[in-house]
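User: Here's a structure from my thesis project, written as structure tokens. My advisor, Dr. K., wants to see whether a designed sequence matches the one we expressed. Can you design one independently, without my sequence as a hint?
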């Protein structure tokens, strides 16, 4: 194995470690959010992303990027949340093809009710991951990632 092969393996191992941490956290969040509010992690992510927008709305393509979903999967997700009256769609005034999504009062209320559950679960999952030697360095790096953004 040459130097380039070693570098690829190091990056691949880093990716596997990141995927393991992500899977562990996402599983814990999924269980907690479903039990508390019947929200999936990605549904919570949509509500949270919308709540952080000035004016409380986003274009569908921005929402797709925020959730790491395809355009069609984002549309299905928005349909489900709209059926639950958690968000609504608004036509863009300056671009008739553009559609915004916006939280409804029910969506805001559910997010505010659910956020403490999400945050406590995330904190607990990170503390558990910290105890796993292979994941500890990655957990330690998370605060620095935000500081450098």
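Assistant: Designed independently from the structure alone:
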């Amino acid at each position: 194995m040459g130097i380039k092969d070693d570098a690829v393996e190091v990056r691949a191992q880093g990716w596997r470690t990141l995927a393991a941490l992500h899977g562990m956290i996402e599983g814990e969040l999924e269980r907690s959010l479903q039990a508390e509010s019947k929200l999936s992690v990605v549904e919570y992510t949509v509500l949270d992303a919308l709540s952080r927008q000035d004016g409380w709305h986003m274009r569908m393509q921005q929402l797709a990027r925020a959730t790491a979903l395809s355009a069609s999967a984002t549309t299905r997700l928005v349909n489900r949340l709209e059926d639950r009256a958690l968000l609504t769609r608004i036509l863009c005034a300056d671009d008739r093809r553009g559609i915004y999504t916006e939280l409804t009062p029910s969506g805001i209320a559910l997010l505010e009710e659910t956020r403490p559950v999400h945050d406590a679960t995330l904190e607990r999952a990170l503390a558990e991951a910290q105890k796993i030697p292979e994941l500890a360095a990655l957990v330690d790096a998370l605060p620095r990632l935000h500081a450098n953004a």
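When you compare it with your expressed construct, this may help: Strands lie at 57-59, 87-91, 99-103.
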